[in-house]
Amino acid sequence: MILQMGWRNIWRNKRRTAVILTAVIIGVWSMIFLGALMRGFSDRMRQNGIATLTGHLQVHRAGFRNDPVIENRITSPAAVLDALEILPEGARWTPRIRVNAVAGNARHSAGITLVGIDPGREAAVSFIGDAVRQGRYLQQEDPLGIVVGEAFVRKFETRLGNKLVLMSQDANGEIASRAFRIVGIFDAELESTEKQFGFVHIAASRKMLGVGDDICEVAVLLPSHRQVEAAAESLRQRLPEDTYTVETWKDLLPIVRETLEIYDVFIFIWFLAVFIAMGFGLVNTILMAVFERIREFGLMRSLGMLPRLVVVEVLAESFFLLVLGMAAGNLIGLLSVWALSVNGIDLSAFSAGMEFAGMSRIIFPVLVARDIFTANATVFLMGLAVSLYPAVKAARINPVEAMARP
Amino acid sequence: MKSIRNIVECRDVTKIYDQGRVKVTALKAVSLEIERGGFIAVAGPSGSGKTTLLNIFGGLDVPDQGTVSVDGELLNDMSQSALAKLRLHKVGFVFQSYNLIPVLSAIENVEFCMLLQGVPAAERRRRARSMLDDVGLEDKYDRRPAELSGGQQQRVAVARAIVSNPVMVLADEPTANLDSKTGEGLLQLMREMNEDKGVTFIFSTHDKMVMDYARRLVVLRDGAVAEDAQR
Amino acid sequence: MAWRNIWRNPRRSVLTMSAVAFATLLLVFMLSWQFGSYATMINASVKIHTGHLQVQAKGYQEDRDIRKVVPDPEAVGKILSRTETVASYTFRAEAFSLVSSKDRTYGVLVTGIDPEKEAAVSTLKDMIRKGRYLADDDANQALVGILLAENLKVSPGDELVVLGQGRDGSIAATVLTVKGIFSSGQDEFDRSVVHIPLHDFQEIFAMRGAVHAAVVICTDLETISQAKKEVSEALGNLEKGRSLAVLGWKELVPGLLQAIKMDLIVGFIFYLILIVVVAFSILNTFLMAIFERKREFGVMMAVGTTPGRLTRVLIYESAAMTLLGSAVGILVGSLLTAYFQVHGIMIPGTEEIAREFGLPERIYPQLSLLSVSVGAGVVLLITLITAAYPALKVRRLKPLEALTAV
Questions:
Q1: Structure ipTM
Q2: For chain C, which terminus, N or C, has the lower number of CB atoms within 10 Å?
C-alpha cells in the first residue's frame, strides 16, 4: 500500500509531474542518443583503423615497427604461418611486404607506403578488396600492376594505364627501382589513406626488393574483436619473443585506443552532468510535494507510522517518477537511434575536420549495452540517493506542529 | 497488563510552550486518572490546554514536568520510535479535520494502521470491511476522502481508530467541523462503540451538546483541572 | 517585493539557483577549455610550421608542384616589410626528395629556410634537441626531425645523400652534413622534414632565386584578415603579382578549422540539451511559486493590481533568481577556470593524440569575455524564457476563482 500511495501521490499534481518527467525523459534520451552517437563515432574510427591494413593483430619481426625497413623482414615465414594454425575458427590472415618507397612520374614524386599483397587473402582482411572504383583489383598473376588511391592520382596528374616508378631500398641496401602500370584506382574513407598506399602483387614486390619468399608482416582479422587479446596471447606463446612481435590493434593504433578511452570517460561525465541538471529539479519537485503535504505526513506520524516508512513512501514517489521517465526516455532514445541507423548522420560538411580527426564522413549511432546500463543505473541510483534529502525531511516532520497547522 | 485499571495516569503534568519572547503555559500540574472503558469529555475554552493534554496522552508530545503512563508504560523516557509504536498499537486517533490520507480510499484508510502493525492482507481487508459496515459506510468502501461528506470522513476516522484494537481512542474536537445533526450522529456512533466493544474514548470539546454525551466530564481552565465529575 | 518573495522559501530558491549556477559554471568552464585548446592547437600549428599567412604561387597549396614558385621574393619581401600588421616573415622552398644515410633511405620533404628570419617566424630554433641550429653562412648543413633521424640512424656530424628533381626537371643531388636534430612534438613533422639553408636549396634544386612561400606572422590573431587584405592588394600592383595568392591559416590547415568548428557545434548540441534539462528542472519551481500563491494574487487583483503588474512582479522574481544563480555560476566557474588557467589540465592517456597535433601535455583553459558571456548568456536566456511562461499564465487568473482557491 505504501507503493500505491507513492504512485497515487505523483498524480495529484499532474502538471508538476509532467514537467519533471519531461526533464527526466529529455535527460535519459540525451544520454542514450548522444551516447550512441559518440559510440558510433568511435566505433567507426576503430573500424576504419582496423580495415586500413591494421587488422586485429599483426606479426612482425622484432624491430620492424621502430625501423620499418626490408632488412627487418621475417626471413622464415613458414614458422610464422605454422603458428597461425592456432588462431580461432574463422580467423583470416594475409602476408604482406610493406616498405617505404618513393613513387614518381615525369612531373611528381612523393613518399608512399608500398604494400605487396596476396590479392585473394588480402581481400578477406582489409578494405582494399572492394575499394577499387576504376580499373580492376590485382589478379593472382600481376607482375606489373599497381593499385593507387584516387587522391594520389589527382595529385600526380596521372590516370589509369599510366606508368609509375617506385624506388625503395632493397635487401642489400641498394636503391631498387621498378616501373608499374596503374591498373586500378581505389577510394577510401580518408584522403590520407588514398595518398599513402600503393598496392602491388606480393610476388612483384619480392622480386623488386630481392627477398625471395620472405614477408614483412602478417595481418590477422578475427571473427570478433573480443577474441583479440586471447589470440594475441596464444600467438605470443608460439612465436619466440626475441624474434617476433605480436601486436593488437590497440598497440598499432594508439591514437584510436586513446580516443576510445577518452570517449568512455566523456560519456560518463556527460551522464553525470545531465543527471546533476535534472537532479536539482527532482529534489525540488519532491521537496515541494513534501512541504505541501506536511499535515498529511503529520497525520501518518501521529498514527504511529515509523519515520523509516515515511522515507520509503517519499522514495516511492521518486522511484515512480524515475521509472516512468527512464522508460519513456529509453524508448525515445532507442527509437531515435533506430531512426538514424538507416541513413546515419552525414557530416560531409566537416569532412576536412573529420579527416583531421581520422573519422569518416557518415556516422551511424551504435548502441552499447553497457552505456545504456550505466545511464539508467546513474539516473536511478543517484535519483533515489538525492531524493533521500526530501524524504528525510518528511520523516522528521513533527506530528504535533504539523497537525496544528491551519 | 489487563489488571491495571487505569489506562492513563498522569501526575503533575506541566507543559510550557516557548514561543520566542512569550512562554505559554499550556498545562499546570495536571493530575488525572483515566479508567478503562470510560467515555470521557475534556472540555474548556480554546487555549485551555485540551489538545495539549490529549497529545500528551497519545504520546505525540512529552510533558516538561510530571509523569504520564499509558496502559502501565511510562511515556516520559520513551524514544521517538517507541512512542510511534505505542501510538500504533495502543492509541486510536480521531482529529478535528484532515483525518484521512487523501490518496487512499475509505477502506484503505481503515486498513492503514493494520498495515503498519503488520496484519496480513486478507485479515486486514476483512476487519476493515466489517468495521466500515459497523460505522454505516458499507456502500462507500472505495470512495476517496474527497468524495465523502465531512460526517462520513469522521466515521471512517472512527473506524480506523477502533479497528486496530487500541486501548483507547483520543478524539480532538471530532465534531468541530460538522453540523450539529451530523455531529450528534458521530457521537452516537462513538457511544455505541464504547458500549458494544468496550473501547475507551477520550475526546475534547467546547460544545455543550457533546459534553452531555460524556459519562465523565473533565473541565480545564487555564491549563488546570477546574472540574472533574462523573455523570 | 520580488526579492522578499524569493526568500519565502529559501530552500527551494537555493536549489533553483544552484541548478542555474551549475549549468553556468559548467558552460563557462567548458567553453574556456574549448577556446583554450583551440588557441593551443592553432598556435602549435602556426608556430611549428604554417605561420599566419603565406604568399604562394596560385595552385601550389593543392599540388605542391616544384615549378609553381614565387619568382621574385625580394619584391614580396618589400611589400611585407611595408605592411604594419606583419610582425615578421621568412621565405621557404621545399621539394620532395630521397634522402639516404649510410644504410637507410627515406622519402623526405627537403625544406630550404633562411635561418635568421625563420627563427622569428617559427619555433624551429627552440626545437633543436641535439647539435646546433643553422647559421646564415652554413653550406651543405641540415637539420633533421628527431623521428627521421631515428629512422635514418643518423646523429649530428653524419652525412646524408639527397636525390631529387630540380625546378627545371634536372636531377638534384648533393651531400649534406647533419648539424642539428629538432623535435616539434608533432610526429608527422618530425618524421618527414629536413631543413637546409635556403641558398643551398636554391642552388641544388635549380630554383634561380625563386622560393615557394613567404611565411608571415602577424602582430596578433585579430590582425590576420587585415594583413591578408593589405598584402593581397599590394601584390596586385606587382608585375606577375597576379600569379600569387595570399593564404590564411584557415586555408593552409583547413582540417584544423573544420575540426574546431565541429568540436564547437558538437559542444553546443550537448550544452543545449543540458540547458533544456535544467530549464525543465526549474520550471516546476516557477510554476509552484505561482500556484501556491493564487489566493495572494487574487487579493492583489481584487484590490486593483493589474495582471500586467503581477506578471512584472513575477518576472522580476524569477529574473532575480536566475541572475543570482548565473552570477554565482560565473563567479565559481571563472575561479575554477582561472585556477586551471594557471595550473593547466592534464588528461592522462592522451599522449599520442597530443603528439599527433603537436600539443603540449597540459591544456590551459582560457578565460575570456567571450567564453564567460556566451555560456552564461545562453543559460540566462533559456531560463528567463522558462520563467516567463508561468508569469504570463498568471494573466489569465480571475480574481474570484483565485480567492476561492485553496
A1: 0.88
A2: C
Residues A31 and A128 in one domain: no
Q: Which of A166, A199, A221 is the last residue of a domain?
A: A221
- Residue A199 to residues A112, A175, C392, Cα–Cα distance (Å): 10, 19, 69
**What is the residue-wise DSSP string for A129-147?**
GGTEEEE-PPPSS-SSEEE
CB spacing of B88 vs A302 below 8 angstroms: no
Residues of chain A found within 8 Å of residue C356, distances taken between Cβ atoms:
255
Q: How many beta-carbon contacts under 8 Å exist across A and B?
A: 66
Q: Are A195 and A305 contained in the same domain?
A: no
Q: Whose CA is closest to C141, among C65, C79, C198?
A: C198
Nearest-Cα distance to chain B for A398, in Å, is: 9
Neighbouring CB atoms inside 10 A of A284's CB total 25
| Positions in chain A whose pLDDT score sits under 70 | 348-361, 405-406
- DSSP collapsed to 3 states, A51-74: HHHHCCEEEEECCCCCCCCHHHCE
Q: Which of B98, B108, B112 sits opposite A295 (nearest CB)?
A: B98
**Interface list for C 153-182 with A (CB within 8 A):** 153, 164-165
CA distances from A204 to A6, A95, A132, A161 (A): 77, 14, 19, 17
Report all structural domains of chain B as residue ranges with CATH numbers, in order of start: 6-230 (3.40.50.300)
pTM recorded for the entire structure: 0.82
A157 and A290 in a common domain:
no
pLDDT single digits (tens) C194-218: 999 999 999 999 999 999 999 999 8
Q: What is the dihedral of CA C248, C253, C259, C260, to 10 degrees?
A: -30
Given this model, what pLDDT does residue C404 score?
61
Preferred mutation among A10, A303, A403, A405 to probe B, highest tally of B CBs within 10 A: A303
Q: Do B55 and A303 touch (CB under 8 A)?
A: no
In the structure, do chain C and chain A come into contact, i.e. share 3 or more CB pairs under 8 Å?
Answer: yes
Element (H, E) at C96: strand C86-100
Q: Do C96 and A111 touch (CB under 8 A)?
A: yes
Asked whether the predicted pLDDT for residue C170 surpasses 90, the reply is no
Task: Give the single-character DSSP code of C86.
Answer: E
Does any domain span residue A234? no
Q: Which of A12, A306, A400 minimises the CB distance to B84?
A: A306
